[in-house]
Design goal:
about 375 residues; alpha+beta; conserved putative lor/sdh protein from methanococcus maripaludis s2 fold; six-stranded antiparallel barrel; four-stranded antiparallel beta sheet; 3 helices; 19 strands; about 40% strand
């Protein structure tokens, strides 16, 4: 019996010793990698934009009056100088009549003063001639006649100034009466009409005052594009840029870059760029939203990795580079997306092996086995 227990004990010790043998180290995880690629960026990006009238004006009469006639309505096309509206202002007509009467009165006074001057000058000249014969005319009489003629000359000067002033007043009132006819300041189309015959209108009383008419130049339009700061470095004046509008799905229009603000909006971090659009056919409407195929280019090469190769944690954005058999987190800044690749800036060099599907579960310094990804995994 003792021998049986001894044999059983030896078997148990043997099994325990076998189970306690040291295990093998864990197998490093396999990660797919691609090479960081250096190339010059040249892509297009879709940017929102808005069509605006090349020029537009809210029309307010320059004088107060009652609307007599309106010759235009919403949708009317006008040429520069066309009569759009006429006002009636009886008080202006009365002021013009008074000014004309004042001119006539001033001219009459001038004529009287000139006649008196001629008479006084004649008397003075005769007395001077007679005074050459001693004892015929007293010297005092000659002096008085000369002074009277000089005074008459001053009256003529004052009358001439009076005529000039009255004529200026008449011209001013006449100019005011021309404002009773409201004419188009440029070619365009009427987009608003807020008045009808009989309405009392006048100069704008403030921002809240509704205009009588609104005139828009729709033959040319401004396409206003807020270009992100990161895409503003390669703007070329005169470049043709395609765009589309919701009213014509599938139809492409073009505009040329005409004006660049060269100023970044601090709220939106965008730069205002204006494209000039020919709209002679009248298809496009001011105020429409548009989608612009904006060209994005670099004048120098930059590095690209797959979009999935960029990840982040609470501290930084990074890619994972495989150096030897170790994973290495490399902090980067991201730029423009180009298809399935994204532009990165950081301590990354062309040809570096970058993990395709980066995740923070791959720890910095972890031992890994790099496997080249299929060609499609890192393509653009």
């Amino acid at each position: 019996m003792t021998r049986r227990w001894l044999a059983f004990g030896l078997l148990a010790v043997s099994c325990t010793t076998s189970d306690a043998a040291p295990s093998h180290a864990p197998t490093p995880r396999k990660v797919e990698t691609v090479q960081a690629v250096s190339r010059t960026l040249s892509v297009t990006d879709s940017l929102p934009a808005e069509l605006a009238a090349y020029q537009a004006v809210d029309v307010y009469p320059k004088v107060t009056g009652f609307v007599d006639e309106v010759w235009v309505d919403v949708g009317s096309r006008v040429k520069k100088g066309d009569l759009m509206m006429r006002l009636a202002a009886p008080e202006l007509v009365a002021q013009k009549a008074q000014a004309q009467a004042a001119v006539e009165s001033a001219r009459s006074q001038l004529a009287t003063a000139r006649a008196k001057l001629a008479a006084e000058q004649g008397t003075s000249e005769r007395l001077v001639a007679a005074a050459r014969t001693p004892g015929v005319v007293a010297g005092n009489d000659v002096a008085i006649a000369q002074q009277t003629a000089e005074a008459a000359r001053g009256v003529v000067g004052a009358a001439e100034h009076n005529v000039s002033a009255s004529q200026d007043a008449l011209r001013a009132v006449t100019q005011l009466t021309t404002y009773l006819e409201v004419r188009a300041p440029f070619d365009g189309i009427i987009t608003k009409r807020n008045v009808h015959p009989g309405a009392l209108v006048g100069p704008a009383a403030g921002p809240s005052a509704a205009p009588s008419l609104r005139l828009v130049d729709s033959n040319r339009l401004r396409l206003v594009v807020p270009v992100p700061e990161a895409q503003s470095s390669a703007i070329k004046l005169g470049a043709e840029v395609p765009f589309g509008v919701p009213a014509y799905p599938g139809m492409a229009f073009t505009g040329s870059i005409a004006r660049v603000s060269h100023d970044i909006d601090l709220q939106t971090r965008t730069m205002r760029v204006e494209l000039e659009v020919d709209n002679a056919n009248g298809k496009l409407a001011a105020g429409s939203y548009a989608t612009v195929s904006w060209p994005v280019q670099r004048a120098y090469p930059t590095l690209f990795v797959p979009v999935s190769a960029v990840t982040s944690d609470q501290q930084s954005t990074f890619v994972i580079r495989v150096a030897g058999d170790k994973a290495e987190w490399v902090t980067v800044k991201v730029g423009q997306v180009a298809g399935a690749q994204i532009e990165v800036v950081g301590d990354v060099r062309p040809g570096d092996a970058i993990v395709v599907n980066a995740t923070d579960s791959i720890r910095n310094g972890e031992q890994v086995t790099a496997v080249a990804a299929p060609q499609s995994g890192g393509g653009a």
